[in-house]
Write a structure and sequence with these properties.
By secondary structure, this protein is an all-beta fold. It has a single domain, classed as Glucose Permease (Domain IIA). 0% of the residues lie in helices and 39% in strands. The strands form two sheets. Strands 1-2-10-6-5-4-8 form a seven-stranded antiparallel β-sheet, with no helix packed on it. The chain binds zinc ion. Zinc ion binds next to loops.
Length: 124
């Protein structure tokens, strides 16, 4: 997959040119957390991936890919995730692409040192 714009656009993701029906792969080693729609009343998909293994702590969102697995499925980088959907109905004339966002989560321990924040209580 080639980057359409080198990541220069302002949205925090990358768009990869792809034709409808092209194979889409897992971008990170992850478990499929949720499969939903990209927009209300749209057939376009939004897939949420939770990183595991070497990609633990990462979260990825993949738009415009028809997922071929159920939520809970674990895939490695490069493994088949599904097929690219067509954007032409939603955005006539647009260059067909897959949108990918990757977010990192961190352990909150230590972030508030010295801030005198008290959450109180205990989960135990
Ligand atoms: Zn995009």
């Amino acid at each position: 997959m080639a980057s359409r714009d080198g990541g220069k656009r302002t949205h925090l993701g990358r768009d990869y040119i792809a034709l409808e029906g092209d194979e889409a792969i897992f971008p990170i080693h992850s478990v499929i957390e949720q499969i939903g729609v990209a927009y209300t009343k749209s057939a376009l998909s939004s897939i949420h991936l939770r990183g595991v293994g070497e990609h633990r702590g990462l979260i990825a969102k993949v738009l415009y890919v028809g997922c071929e697995h159920q939520a809970g499925y674990e895939g490695r980088v490069g493994e088949r995730l599904g097929t690219v959907q067509s954007l032409q109905e939603k955005y006539p004339g647009i260059t067909n692409h897959v949108h990918l966002e990757v977010m990192a989560t961190v352990d909150p321990e230590g972030l508030m040192e010295g801030a005198h924040v008290e959450f109180g209580g205990s989960l135990k």
